Amino acid sequence: MSVAKRKEQEKIEMHKRILDSARKIFLEKGYEQTSIRNIASAISYSPGSIYFYFKDKNEIFHELHKEGFRLFLSQMKALDVIEDPYERYKALGLVFIRFAQNHTDYYNLMFLVSETGKAEGEGFQIAQGAIEHLSGVIQQCQDQGRFRGLDNKYLTLMTLSLVHGICSLYCKDRMSGFFEKSSEELMIHGYETFIALIESK
Amino acid sequence: MSVAKRKEQEKIEMHKRILDSARKIFLEKGYEQTSIRNIASAISYSPGSIYFYFKDKNEIFHELHKEGFRLFLSQMKALDVIEDPYERYKALGLVFIRFAQNHTDYYNLMFLVSETGKAEGEGFQIAQGAIEHLSGVIQQCQDQGRFRGLDNKYLTLMTLSLVHGICSLYCKDRMSGFFEKSSEELMIHGYETFIALIESK
DNA sequence: TGTTTTATTGAACACCGTTCAATACATTTG
DNA sequence: CAAATGTATTGAACGGTGTTCAATAAAACA
Q: Which nucleotide has its C1' atom closest to residue A54's CA?
């Protein structure tokens, strides 16, 4: 069965080649500006062949969508080494912000492109995991006596909304020009203002 | 000059007819799924004729973009009757949330569709006005002794980020399924959690 | 060596935004 | 009124899009 194995390997490699090409174009130009023909010609392939490996354009997109969420979750999980839950909580927000800064294109793909439809897909399951992770950290903070009188779920949602709001404004370039400072600085200061607010609770 | 006047009137009316048709389709299907041909055929017009009234598809979009911001700003300004600045501040967030709920399509068009490019266009000037309005209300709160030790600009940015974050999650349908409650309820509770946080400051 | 399976191609279809020569209509001029 | 001018409208055409599919090439198997 060596032949079958090799064939399978080749198929996986072709799959990867297409995905690599797609990633480059998707992240650079966004969903609508990426065409199957572009993806194909970038690897000297015919448009039709793409459909041997992927059902349609959306399936390619969802692959990258998942990819982004996995990358994101791994950066969240990297904070598990931080002992103090509250410090971990604060760092989680910064991971969000840093991710949006360093992987703006992924962020757009993951959170701001519409094409992905409702809460379908594997990517969203990973996102769900990220949310539960955040909720858990907040719970640990609450177990230590922090955030007294605040509901864990709504606190999670609020935290998420805040950082996502900051990152959304940043990724859509709605932040530059608001004030005189750079967008990166604004993100951090905006977040720190939030932390200052929650600090006393 | 009665003839010229009538002609001008007819031109304005045609402009409006196209915009009405475009609004219906844009708000229903979003930017990419709206085609010039659809807009035209919905009013028994030829595709080419649209270009007699609008430079291109983007110009039509921007018209609606502006429209949305004007509608939004008017709802913000309606709160000027509220005497107490802090009450006005709290109500401003609710206006945001209510707008996203009642005009989800506009919200998507205004804040979440990419096609509009950087901070160009008249719509963004109106948005800038809205932000300055919020900043002013926060300043009034601060003049009353609230939000002590917090920078007005960052507080404005944070407030904006929070409500925009809530609304973005809602409009992209990322909120349903998080917890057991309805999205509308979650928005309000998330916002109230924020208010509870800021209340003591 | 056939034969069958697998992979690849490129033409074709129906759509898209946009342009533009041709046309129809309305108004003004002779 | 008729001719000329300007104004509005059309639909074909251009180069693009996602997707399908019959034909074909390549590889694996018998």
A: D19
Candidates A119, A150, A200; nearest CB to B176: A119
pLDDT in tens, A92-124: 999 999 999 999 989 998 988 765 544 467 778
Q: What is the 3-state secondary structure (H, E, C) of B58-78?
A: HHHHHHHHHHHHHHHHHHHHH
Q: How far apart are CA A181 and CA A195, in angstroms?
A: 20
Q: Domain spans of chain B?
A: 1-54, 65-199
What does the pLDDT read at residue B120? 60
Please state whether the predicted TM-score (pTM) of the whole model is above 0.90: yes
B-chain residues within 8 Å CB-CB of A151? 189, 193
Share the mean pLDDT of chain B: 92
Handedness of CA B56, B58, B62, B63 (dihedral sign): positive
Burial of A1 (0-12, 13-18, 19+ CB in 10 A): exposed
- Tens of pLDDT, residues B36-58: 999 999 999 999 999 999 999 99
Mean pLDDT of chain A: 92
Q: How many Cβ pairs within 8 Å bridge chains A and B?
A: 134
A2 touches strand C (CB under 7 A): no
Nearest protein residue by Cα to C1' of nucleotide C11? A48
Chain A residue with minimal CA distance to B132? A178
Distance of CA A139 to the CA centre of its chain: 23
Task: Inform me whether the pLDDT recorded for A3 exceeds 70.
Answer: no
Classified by CATH at the fold level, domain B65-199 comes out as: Tetracycline Repressor; domain 2 (1.10.357)
The per-residue pLDDT for range B151-174, each reduced to its tens digit, is 999 999 999 999 999 999 999 888
C-alpha distances (whole Å) from A58 to each of A55, A115, A150 are 8, 8, 40
Domain B1-54 in CATH 1.10.10.60? The answer is yes
- A196 membership: H or E segment, kind and range: helix A183-199
CA nearest A97: which of A28, A201, A194? A194
Determine the pLDDT at residue B118.
47
